Each structure stands twice: as C-alpha cells, then as structure tokens.
Amino acid sequence: MPVNMPDNLSRDRIMNALLDESEQEARVRVRQPTTGAADNQAVQLRRAQYQNILDGYVKKKDLTADESRSLRFVRGQIGEMTAKLYPTTWNKIRYWKPVKFLVNWIRGRASKTNAYSRQIEAVGKQTAQVENVKALQETLHNQGFNVSMEGPLSRWIAHELPAFHLEYYDPDNRKTQYTLFFKKIPGTDTYAFTQYNAEALRSAEQSMRDRTPLVREEVSMLETNPYTAKEAENLVHQQPVSRMQAGQERWAWLDQHGHRQQTTVSLVAKMAQYLFDEQQIPVKWESLLAALRSGNTKEATLIGPDKKTEKVTVQFDPIQQDLVFTNKAGQAIQPPKKHQLPAATIRMMEQALYEKPAQRVSQGRGV
User: Fold this and answer.
1) Does 95 reside within a domain?
2) Phi, psi of 75 (to 5 degrees)
3) Contacts of 318 (CB under 8 A, 6+ apart)
4) To which H or E segment does residue 122 belong?
5) pLDDT digits (tens, 9 = 90+) for 165-206
6) Could you say which of 127, 161, 187 is where a domain stops?
7) 149, 179 in Cβ contact below 8 A?
8) Would you tell me the crossing angle of helices 13-31 and 40-57 to the nearest 10 degrees?
C-alpha cells in the first residue's frame, strides 16, 4: 500500500521494516477484530518481530545515521513491550508515560521517538481503514449488494465515528431502497456491517395516490443466515420468501402492518398433488420450483385425468398453504388432485429438487 513518507524515512531500512510490521498487524486486527494492539499475543508477536529487526541490523556496518537512530528506537520499544508482558514495580515506573518522555527528553530523543511512533501509528491506521473497506465490501457483495460502496465507506470510516449509515441505491433496481448500518466494534477501530433496512419505493404519482405507510423490512446481520438483499426486496413487495431450515421448508412474508410472518409447508408436497408436464424435463421443473419459491407466478402445463393438457398460471400462497391456479382467461380454477404420494417419496423429491435450485439461490440467482 503506498504511504507518503518523508524522504529520510523512505531510505531508512529499519523504519521501513517497522512500517511493514505495522501494516501486517493492522490487517490481522481487521480480520480478527477481537485481537487488539494491546493483546498479549499481539504484543509478543510484535516484540519478536522487533527483536528480529534488531538482530538483523545491529551488526551491519553500512547503517546510516537515520538507521542508527531507528535502531535505538527499536531497542526502546522492545524494552517497553517486555515491561508490558512482564510487569514489575520498576518497569511500571520506568515506562510510565511521563517518565518515559522525560528520559527520552534528557537523552535528546523525545522528538524523534514521537515522530517514529506517529508514523508507525499513521501507517497502521491507514492500512486498517483500507482493509476494513475491502472486508465490508466483500460482506455487502455476499449479501447481494453488488454496487460498489468503496468510496462512501472509505470517507465515513475516515471520520472514526462510533457508527454511521449509508443509503444504497442500485440503478438496475428502481423499486427498492436500502439503508445500510455500520458500527465500530467495541474496543477496536474496525467497523462491522450490523443491519440494513429495505423499503419499497414509490413514484411521486404513487405517493400522491397512496398515503399508506411504506413497507419496510429490517434485517439484522447478527441473525443466523440473515436475509439477502433480494429476499428482503421480495418481502417489502409482498412476495413470500422460502428457505430450507432444519430439513423443513419455511416461508416468510410481511402482513399488512409490515410484520414478518412465518409458516412451515412443503412446496414439493403441494405440487406432488398435481401432475405437471414440466416434471418430465428437469430443467423446466427446477425453473418452475424456483419461480414459485420466489413468490412469482409461472406458466405451467397441467396434465388432467384424461391425459389432456391445459396451460395455466400457478402461484404458491403460503398463507393459504396451497397452490393458486388461473386459466388462460385469467379465471381462478381448481384442478383435480391426484392420489397423494407417500411421505418418503415426497421427502426424496424435496432432496432432489429443492437442493439444486437452493444452491443457485445462495450464489445470488434469486430467492
């Protein structure tokens, strides 16, 4: 990562090694936020690395004056870290901040020591912010937010606020608005993506006609397997969401007050009550299942008791826990049901026909 350094530091091999270590530690803190800079394990690793630097350069004959001063700084830092790891009454007094400053001032090193410490801290902070943005962007992408938020994230993280939120708008999705919430993890400088809200958008004309409150879904990222952006979009637009949990198919939707409702019902079991022509072609059958699980309507071909086929539009209603059919004229119909299949057969169909579409769902191709 490019860092602006004074010319004398950029030619100082020892200081460059210290800056490399600062960058490395910052990356670790972002990947594992519970590991703070003062964590004993982190201090031990830093002390070992500083000792490696000292051992590697102390006997070199080509050290510049700047590098010799940097080496003295390394010795002082090793002593301070040793005092943290193995505190005694003496080293607590020796490395107490006012005493440490006084000793460095008497030796004429206070200014240089402070400059080195500030430079190392600045590089670590800059690296941590860059890595934090990368990690958050990856989390957002995995959750279905594919428009890059790198610029806004970088600017807001640089403010070092306890928390902030960003408005997310996808130009390819003009019917849903999202608000993303980020919070600093206590005791660290690392931010986490903690929650997002999805809201159904209205045009100005729709807002004039419809004065009812907007439908909003709040999704906590602290939940186990939280809803994706696409799933939240379906919910706020009154489309149900289907998921497999503990071997059961669970459906969720929002009621008229915007409260999330859930039920357990097997779509495969309901569809097994009818004979679909699509069952003979796996790709079409999977497409039909995926559409219904997304809350969409889908055209299908029913095969009647007399082997005659009929084009219908079908949708699954989780509230009624049944399929809803309309014919080509748009009229609601109730096709005759065939003999109910055994539960074991239905379970085999669920395993064979649910899991493949579900895998594609997890990769962002739908709900």
Assistant:
1) yes
2) -60, -45
3) 240, 242, 251, 253, 263, 265
4) helix 110-142
5) 999 988 888 889 999 999 999 888 899 999 999 998 866 565
6) 127
7) no
8) 160
Full domain range(s) for residue 315: 267-365
Are both 18 and 121 inside the same structural domain? Answer: yes
Nearest to 238 by CA among 219, 223, 220, 258: 258
Distance CA 216, CA 258 (A): 7
Q: How far apart are the first and last CA of the chain?
A: 38
**What are 72-93's pLDDT values in tens digits?**
999 999 988 888 888 888 877 7
Question: Which own/partner contact pairs does 63-72 have at CB distance under 8 Å and 24+ positions apart?
Answer: 64/11, 64/12, 66/8, 66/9, 66/11, 66/12, 66/15, 67/12, 67/13, 67/14, 67/15, 69/109, 69/112, 70/12, 70/14, 70/15, 70/18, 70/116, 71/14, 72/109
Q: Quick one: 205 and 153 in the same domain?
A: yes
Neighbours of 168 (CB within 10 A): 20
Asked if residue 350 belongs to a domain, the reply is yes
Please indicate, yes or no, if residue 72 is contained in any of the structural domains: yes
For the chain, state the CA radius of gyration.
31
> Which one-letter amino acid corresponds to residue 306?
D
Strands 241-245 and 248-254, how do they pair?
antiparallel
User: Quick one: 220 and 299 in the same domain?
Assistant: no
- Short-list 221, 191, 215, CA closest to 202: 215
Alpha carbon of 267 to those of 88, 228, 232, 317, 338: distances in Å? 68, 21, 20, 10, 16
- Shared domain for 148 and 114, answered yes or no, is no
Helical spans, DSSP H, in 254-317: 267-271, 282-293
Tokens at 222, concatenated: 């602290």
Domain boundary among 96, 127, 158: 127
pTM of the entire predicted model: 0.75
Residues 6+ apart with CB under 8 A from 67: 12, 13, 14, 15, 57
Residue 62 sits in the same domain as residue 173 = no
Number of domains in the chain: 3
Token pair belonging to 182:
């980020």
Displacement of CA 172 from its chain's centroid (Å): 21
Is 138 among the domain residues? Answer: no
